[in-house]
Amino acid sequence: MTQPVSTPGDSFRRWDIRVLDPATAIRQPAQAAPEVTAYRGNVLLITATDQAVADAVIAAVDEIIAQLGVRRSGPAPFDVDGESRERDGRNLEHERRARLLRAAAQNGIPLVFPYFLEPAAEGPTQPVDAWTVLQAIRSRGDEVLDRAVGLDHLMVSAAITGNPFVAGNPFVAGNPFVAGNPFVAGNPFVAGNPFVAGNPFVAGNGATGTYGVAGLGGHGPVSVVLPAPRPRKVGRRPGVVVMDTGVGGHPWFSAPNEKVQRQLWLADGTVLGTDVSKQTAIDTDPESAGAVVDPMTGTLGSHAGHGTFIAGLLRQTCPEAQITVLRIMGADGVVAEDVLTTELTALALHQRQNPGRTDALVLSLGYYAETAADQDYTAGLHVLLADLAAVGVTTFAAAGNDATDRRSYPAAFAVQPPFGTVGACGVVSVAAVNPDGTVAMFSNDGSWVTAQAPGANVVSTAPITTQGGLAAAGSVLDERDRVRSTIDPDNYAGGFATWSGTSFAAPVLAGRFLAALTDLAGKDDAANRAAIVQTLQR
Amino acid sequence: MSTQDAGTALAVAAALRETLQRMECDFDGPSWLAAQTTGTEPTTTSRPAPRSPAPAAPTFTSGIRISPLPGRAGIPDPWTVLTELRAHPDPDVARSVGLNHVLSTAEQVGGNPFAIGHGRVGLDSYGVPGSGGRGPLTFVGPPPQGGLEGKRPRVVLLDTAVGEHPWFAAAPPTARFSMSDGRVVGDQIHPYPREDGAPTADPIPDPMLGTLGTHTGHGTFISGLLRQACPDVQIVALPVMGADGMVPEHMLIRALDLVLAKQLDCPGWADAVVMSLGYYNENPDDVAYSSGLKALLVRLGRTGVVVFAAAGNDATDRPSYPAAFAVDPEFAEPGILPVVSVAALNPDGTSAAFSNNGPWVTAAAPGVNLLSIAPTALDGSGRPQVAVQDRASIDLDSFRGGFAAWSGTSFAAPVLAGRYLRALADVRFPDQAQLRRAVLEPLLRRKPLPANGSTVPR
């Protein structure tokens, strides 16, 4: 559904997004003002080592929020046989997650799950705010509880979005944090502020804004006459999983060329990522039927084609790799942390059921945490990536595109224990470089960014079905009724595009890692993997 | 002047001298013509004299430099001379002289005075990076890998000199080749006037501004496209063109003469010639008159060479030569391979707005915002919009990463040539013109656009 231009759009509504405003956010006495971040208003994210701890945390939170006029909504997180048998979407989602959590508990995988909040009052009342609830929990001074409960952050994909409709987009024009804020409006270097830079609906600003323009790095069609990259014959093909917008139709990914997998299954039939065989999933596919997010103007989603582009970069850098692109985000490039942690749980199970199947994970997304001492409060994502590292999965995470040194997660885990130690290879954070090798102006950087790779005006694959409402500047029919025109700026029928972002630097580095792994021809033990990662770092 | 036999050449020389003397001037003939007047036969083996445009091949085609008689200043416009000669009573003489056209290349972004700044809607947009103009790209894939065993296809590229690039580190395109008698030829082909034989090619033609030539990297870009469309291709690149994209017709003919000589000397040596350049003739009779160029291409066509010529970028149906020879009946004769004139297609498969078109355009291929290679040394004086320490926005005229986007029928021609060469290799290089034609024919048909208005490349 398309929202009228005067109201916030789909993703705000879909996720009940709140933006933490440092000036007005409630806080503990003597606590510093938090940083800006975006989170789900009615969800907390809970992390526990096992089910006993999880039950204790749930009980403690139940008790605390009762005093705030708030209560837990929906079935208990681990309850698969609850009395509620309604087959609505939320319950299906709940049951899938509960089954995954139970399996995770049996396998010693950390338990990370959302805790849904709703007002306890019967009459009219203010909506719940997870930040307020979280402050009440933290005021108890219980360290275990502090670490176990956090916000459910909104993660934003790290592509530069050259969206020409930005000016008329309510997220920008109608958003007082942007339009009316002198710190933003008058300042070309607003990067680092997720009101603007972390918001996929705002295509960079000032110094970094040039990258939104086609030819300067922006998204646009390009002609490629290369044959599809051909794999060499190798003993074991390395596996890579991308969690992104999915993958669309392209000759590189259909016979006679190697397919890109769109789904993985656990032994019990559970699908990893969105079940792309479902009709609702087909209708909203950012790589196909759902690419146009605004049918009235034909506007392409800012991240339509994102996953296909990443798949093409992996194919180019390691033609031998088995590529799987799971769909976890929509064409707006926004995904909630709990959705990601649930899929990471599923991947951890998959890796245990298929040892050695996946060598690399590409996460071209991230969020900025609300407090400096953030690593304590980003436990869920952290422990799940650590668990994956322990079973042989190296994560390549985009550093982010906001020209800031503010830490973006999961990339910044690269320098935090257990990943930061020499020789460990769990998480690599990747900055983007320009065609001539200089660091791209938009790229995040800092001590927490451990690697860099090409990520500006990169050429890769686009779904051949992607076609937006923009028209060529001029177009006529010739004497044989063939179309003669200037370039249609958002028609990707030719199958190739240019684009920029650390989103694309991450898979390039992942592909180089996989290619090096392939060259080891079986001698790919942990020490050798760590050595490869070492050479790929700055 | 252009003749097929020595006798006519002598008649033309006599008529030319007689005409010019009435105008108080004379001409510097090519050495072989001077040799004719002293009774020596021209041969393909005689080494051309320095600074003298002379054919090394068995055609009698050359530029003629008109010079004033001693004590006189100035010369008549060659057009005036030509007009007189075309009224000559001997039709062979009238037919054997023509203007020495300046050919310009067919790509956008400056260079072509017919194309840029004409204010026609949409066309100038192709000069902007991102809308088709030359600009740097990032490409992370491997170099195209060939796998042919035995004979590999060979193409002669008449364009700017090819620069250095990792894709060609192992086997760079060559600008020289040897004849069976041991002579090494190719050095006489150069884009700039020069006195001492030393190469003068300079990628920065305007050192005081440091701007890149409008056509700097043109030949390298084309070589990359040939390699992409046919990874096994061997490229012979004769640098007839300067960084300004201009080619005098006599230099083009001199290069084609060499190719023809080699092809006669060593049958089956080359399979295709790519010419991303063209001129508009001065009157419709020009084909009947001019054409040294045409005669050469016909003879090349007999030796198994297909010529791929850019249709031009001026959104006109006025025939551009050599492309328009594609529909000349002489090339339709059995035993002669054709000239193919190539229009450019947009990324989505529609025709590029700038592309020439008309009954004389016989094929189309991708030619807009193409990915290909640029010399890694190429870095103009333009700077990134923003830069601080080692961080910068994109530097639009730095090609140190080695990859670029560009547009033009200049680039559609080599894409089609590469596809032809690959198909030719697939059927193991048949000798008969008829069989080669059968390989070419399917490439000349444009794929119909599917319902969504586009074609999908394989």
What does this structure look like?
Chain A is α+β, with helices and mostly antiparallel strands and 538 residues long. Chain A has a domain at 8-157. Helices cover 26% and strands 20% of the residues of chain A. In chain A, the strands form six sheets. In chain A, strands 1, 2, 3, 4, 5, 13, 15 and 17 form an eight-stranded antiparallel β-sheet that branches. A six-stranded parallel β-sheet of chain A has the order 12-7-14-16-18-20, with helices on both faces. The radius of gyration of chain A is 23 Å and the shape is globular. Chain B is α/β, with parallel strands linked by helices. Helices cover 25% and strands 17% of the residues of chain B. Chain B is built from ten helices and 22 strands. In chain B, the strands form seven sheets. Chain B has a six-stranded parallel β-sheet, with helices on both faces. A four-stranded antiparallel β-sheet of chain B has the order 11-5-13-15. The N and C termini of chain B lie far apart (46 Å). Chains A and B meet through strand 6, helix 9, strand 19 and strand 23 of A and strand 6, helix 5, strand 17 and strand 21 of B. Strand 23 (483-485) of chain A pairs parallel with strand 17 of chain B.
